[in-house]
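Q: SprT family protein, please. Structure only.
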Amino acid sequence: MNDDELQRWVESVSLTAFGVPFRHQARFNGRLRTTGGRYFLRSHHIEISPHQLAVHGAEETERIIKHELCHYHLHLAGRGYRHRDADFKHLLKHVGATLHCKSLPGAKRSLPVKFYLVCRECGMSYPRKRKTDPRRYVCGKCRGKLKLVPAEASE
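A: Structure for SprT family protein:
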């Protein structure tokens, strides 16, 4: 599928699911790996990950298109278009879109745990991926002071 076919598909989904035409540009972006698509607030264009189509098929990609069209139509209507807004959540449910897309194989980029914040009082341990100032926090269990310990020293 190329960008022209995607454009026609998005226009068709917009008319059938929302009853309003899509008047901007839709295109594939091969760099999108951790997200299924995105909507641009300034230009009102939509980008869709071609990897989602290849891995999960047309049905899941259509849900992603509907998700981005929810952002699009609500933003142009001046209503709540962000994920946390009630208007957005209601419209997602109404058109059968998903809030989150399925993840692609090998796309998860998680940092390893490098540090622990350890409570001096009760010994409770909090894993951290980045170095953190322990003076800014207290233990959630006993409100004690914390110390920063490298991951290999705590194991």
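A: Brief note, in case it's useful. The mean pLDDT is 93.
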